[in-house]
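From the thread on structure requests for the teaching lab: each student submitted one protein with a one-line request. Submission from student K.M.:

"Model ABC transporter permease from Labrys miyagiensis, tokens only."
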Amino acid sequence: MLSAGKARLDTGAFPASSATMKAFSIRGIDKLGVVMAIVTLAGLWLPFANFRPSRIGQARGVPFLDALPAGIGWAALALFVIALALIVGRTAPRLRLAAAVAALVLLGLLVGLTPDTLIPAGNARPRVGPAAGFWLLTFSFAIILTDALVKLSLRPAQRVIALLIALAVFAAFLLSGHWNGLSIMKEYATNGSDFPANAIRHIVLALASLAGALIVGLPLGILCQRSPGLRGIILPALNMIQTIPSLALFGLMIAPLTFLSKAYPFLGELGIHGTGPSPAMIALFLYALLPVVSNTAIGLDSVPATVVDAARGMGMTARQRLLQVELPLAFPVILTGVRIVLVQNIGLATIAAWIGGGGFGVYVQNGMGATAIDLVLLGAIPTIALAFSAAIILDAIVDTLKGRHA
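Reply posted by the TA:
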């Protein structure tokens, strides 16, 4: 009887075994969720808000529960625990997405309450802003949100709609005045009179340098694809430019442009000077050339030879094959290079402030000079948001084009 029972057990006659239960428990845990839960717990342990007695005073970290009204703090803590339970378990992507979105909105609401909790009534000198705990919590739930969106496999248009919804929620927080007590908003109230002008300058620097790179880089990329000899010269030269530190390259533009503007006064009348947006735009243009040129050449290389032969057999000239067959098929790869350039230039345009180029870097530069971290954030956060938005939109366009060519 025992041997028969053992045989039935070995052949799986009995439905539940310890190995099966163990496998079930492993399948029920999300590894990324466990990591992000640990990060979230660390964020709840670290200071949630920074309190400064003045604009540039020494910051004092305030724990999560101390930074919020007592009842609200404990209620928020309970909600975060519920969100963690959903994240650690291998739940449906839509449920994980809902938990992450709810947690991020809750963080936006909570951080807006910290000034009223920590600043004594009638005292305008102290400053309160987000601390390491807030940023760590935001990072954790943003990663979970991104993971859920990837698992949902949203179509390109849906990704753009999700971005617009996120921007709308962010704008609603700004316009509602809920964040007005935070130190970064006080910096905006004091130093933000030229914020629209600097935003426009930042965008113009990124887009104008990209446009110049496309005008020059597309023909160079075609030449590189057609001539291996030129490819062996042009691409290494552009690679060398990429190795020059950004601030050094910006500075290298000052001397020659100063000489040219003095030697040829009409250049100065056109706005070309040793400092200002001109050297910044030229430096960004030089950085943008490599991705455009290399992706153009790679995109043309990826066009199937059979397609080109078929076009040749139809009697198309070399120009017709290039414009009507090769470039359209290579366009998704070329657009990937455009995406790299735009995101790169949005970030690098911040350094333009160090040579008088304007943009969001003005606030970063002034904040570093005055040791005012919130003024630095006033320039850094819009730059990150702009680069992130550009990446999502261009990724959606690239995926749409790839779907059409598939």
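TA comment: Confidence is low (pLDDT under 50) at residues 1-26. Residues 22-153 form a domain with the Butyryl-CoA Dehydrogenase, subunit A; domain 3 fold (CATH 1.20.140).
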